[in-house]
């Protein structure tokens, strides 16, 4: 193939991917409107053990049989759906809008030894399956285990009660029935039945029955928000007190005795943080690493904020995979933010190797995500799970990184270096670094970092419980207003706590505040990870290698993102604080 040809093809691929992401589900259900007797498609999605929500296999990996209808075989899925393991296969059942179907057999399975064992395994492990009609999910259990005589039963009858309002489908109930004993050689007959009923549910409200208001709007949830809010007020008070205390004396002095000797003003009764004015703006160690982490943190914070706003406005949970699509799109689109802040910070630290910094910035977070996903994918392939990422999707993600994220980061970096690459520090940096005095063990940066995460974690951990439960158990998270509040509370708490931490650090005449403030914020994520371990053992019943690796891998990714975000909040707030207090220090 010629070079030109390859380039053309890559461009086409990128365009297709972008279109798929933006143009989410222009699916087969089109506009959700049906005429009488129009075909209504029943999609079989996945089947898997109830306690392991993410361990799913395609429905027909069990020896179920499809119905006689053969029109559509495979659903054209979006990238986000492919990544989330959605694998819709046409059921073959003939369902038409407003046409009742009496109990009708649609296929037979004769139980060979192999099929029998497959079904027994599924029933024993509480397998259940998911189907979709017109975008509405339906769940059913595969079978039942009778403990008394240790026999296994399979449900062979599916009864659909579909509610319609005008020309739209607004409600679906599934009743499974027809218990058939699983024995070698039995011929199972699968049947289905469809009853259409007029319903008064409005189309916009058809997802309401899936939302568990008594869970998500429980008193505890409100109470925790209120609690965190009180904490915010307390912390903001504390920080303002520190600021007042440190600044008041200076202001008083400036206004009173202008003529005091400079030497005396500088050294007189001065102690603690003022002593390190000649070092406090010294570049941190590993400036490139720090600027990469902070640039990425900016990006993650903006993605979280924007996606939460979208979710509040757009009820993203009503479309399969739309939350992930939105997140990926916003992530790619906010790459310039990463480049801008990372690049400008690196320039302020006097970094020269900006091309390396830019590449690392662009790929640091995506490559960790892809690396983890890749590892989990190995196990998924081994298990034949439906979450095994198809090769096409991997190519698509790589293309997004190379052709969207990288150029946008480049633009951001160039802008950042040129527009705000100057370090306008209020104090000069001395040529010789000041030795850091001995201090109490709890004033060491490591301890401060450890302590820094406790309060921010305290302000979010109830929300973490709700978020975890919606991801790892079967709840649809929809209270994004809460999430936005918690996001804002978390940012304020983190900023305040790291400012207080830094104040103590500087008072101990230790000027290494850059990394300390970043890590003090980021340590919140460490506590969240510990909490996730507790959650795994005490709040879920997950088992098996695949689900365990999936859980801890994804939690690690989540905590990494959270850590980068909180670390950035911490650095940001502290940096403003340090500039503020040292701008009042008058030197020669
Ligand atoms: C589905 O079940 C719910 C609760 O039992 C009921 O209120 C609703 O009317 C049912 N819908 C249909 C279409 O039968």
Automatic annotation (TrEMBL):
Signal peptide: 1-27
Membrane topology: Multi-pass membrane protein
InterPro entries assigned to the protein according to its UniProt record, in alphabetical order: EMP70
Primary localisation category: membrane
Localization, UniProt: Membrane
GO biological process: protein localization to membrane
Membrane spanning residue stretches: 222-244, 290-312, 324-347, 359-385, 391-415, 448-474, 480-506, 518-537, 549-572
Keyword match DNA-binding: no
Signal among keywords: yes
Top-rank taxon, per record: Eukaryota
Keywords assigned: Membrane, Signal, Transmembrane, Transmembrane helix
Record-linked Pfam families: EMP70
Protein name stated in the entry: Transmembrane 9 superfamily member
Protein encoded by which gene: 107369967
């Amino acid at each position: 193939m010629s070079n030109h040809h390859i380039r053309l093809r890559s461009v086409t691929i990128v365009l297709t991917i972008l279109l798929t992401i933006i143009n989410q589900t222009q699916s087969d259900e089109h506009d959700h409107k049906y005429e009488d007797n129009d075909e209504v498609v029943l999609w079989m999605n996945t089947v898997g053990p109830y306690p392991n929500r993410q361990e799913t296999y395609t429905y027909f990996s069990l020896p179920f049989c499809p119905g006689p209808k053969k029109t559509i075989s495979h659903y054209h899925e979006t990238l986000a759906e492919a990544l989330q393991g959605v694998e819709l296969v046409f059921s073959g059942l003939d369902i038409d809008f407003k046409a009742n179907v009496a109990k009708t057999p649609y296929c037979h399975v004769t139980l060979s030894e192999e099929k029998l064992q497959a079904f027994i395994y599924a029933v024993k492990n509480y397998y259940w399956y998911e189907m979709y009609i017109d975008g509405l999910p339906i769940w059913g259990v595969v079978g039942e285990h009778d403990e008394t005589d240790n026999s296994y039963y399979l449900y062979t009858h599916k009864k659909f009660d579909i509610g319609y309002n005008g020309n739209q489908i607004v409600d679906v109930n599934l009743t499974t029935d027809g218990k058939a004993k699983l024995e070698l050689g039995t011929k199972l007959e699968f049947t289905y039945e469809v009853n259409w009923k007029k319903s008064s549910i409005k189309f916009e409200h058809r997802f309401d029955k899936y939302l568990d208001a008594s869970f998500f709007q429980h008193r505890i949830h409100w109470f925790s928000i209120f609690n965190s809010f009180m904490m915010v007020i307390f912390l903001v008070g504390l920080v303002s007190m520190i600021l007042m205390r440190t600044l008041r004396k200076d202001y008083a002095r400036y206004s009173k005795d202008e003529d005091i000797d400079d030497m005396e003003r500088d050294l007189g009764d001065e102690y603690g943080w003022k002593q390190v004015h000649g070092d406090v703006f010294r570049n941190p160690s590993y400036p490139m690493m720090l600027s990469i982490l902070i640039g990425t943190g900016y990006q993650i914070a903006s993605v979280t904020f924007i996606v939460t706003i979208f979710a509040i406005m757009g009820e993203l949970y009503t479309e399969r995979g739309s939350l992930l699509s939105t997140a990926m799109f916003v992530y790619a689109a906010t790459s310039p933010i990463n480049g801008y802040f990372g690049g400008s910070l690196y320039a302020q630290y006097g970094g020269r190797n900006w091309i390396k910094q830019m590449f690392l910035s662009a790929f640091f977070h995506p490559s960790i995500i892809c690396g983890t996903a890749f590892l989990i994918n190995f196990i998924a392939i081994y298990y034949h799970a439906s979450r095994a990422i198809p090769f096409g999707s991997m190519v698509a993600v790589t293309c997004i990184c190379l052709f969207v994220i990288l150029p946008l980061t480049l633009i951001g970096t160039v802008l950042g270096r040129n527009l705000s690459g100057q370090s306008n520090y209020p104090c000069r940096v001395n040529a010789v670094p000041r030795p850091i005095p001995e201090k109490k063990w709890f004033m060491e940066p490591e301890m401060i970092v450890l302590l820094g995460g406790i309060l921010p974690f305290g302000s979010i951990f109830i929300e973490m419980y709700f978020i975890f439960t919606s991801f790892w158990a079967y709840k649809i998270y929809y209270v994004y207003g809460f999430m936005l509040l918690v996001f804002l509370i978390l940012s304020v708490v983190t900023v305040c706590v790291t400012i207080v931490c830094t104040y103590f650090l500087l008072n101990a005449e230790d000027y290494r505040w850059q990394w300390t403030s970043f890590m003090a914020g980021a340590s919140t994520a460490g506590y969240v990870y510990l909490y996730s371990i507790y959650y795994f053992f005490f709040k879920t019943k997950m088992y098996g290698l695949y689900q365990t690796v999936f859980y801890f891998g994804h939690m690690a990714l989540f905590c990494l993102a959270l850590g980068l975000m909180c670390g950035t909040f911490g650095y940001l707030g502290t940096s403003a604080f340090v500039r503020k207090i040292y701008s009042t220090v008058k030197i020669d």
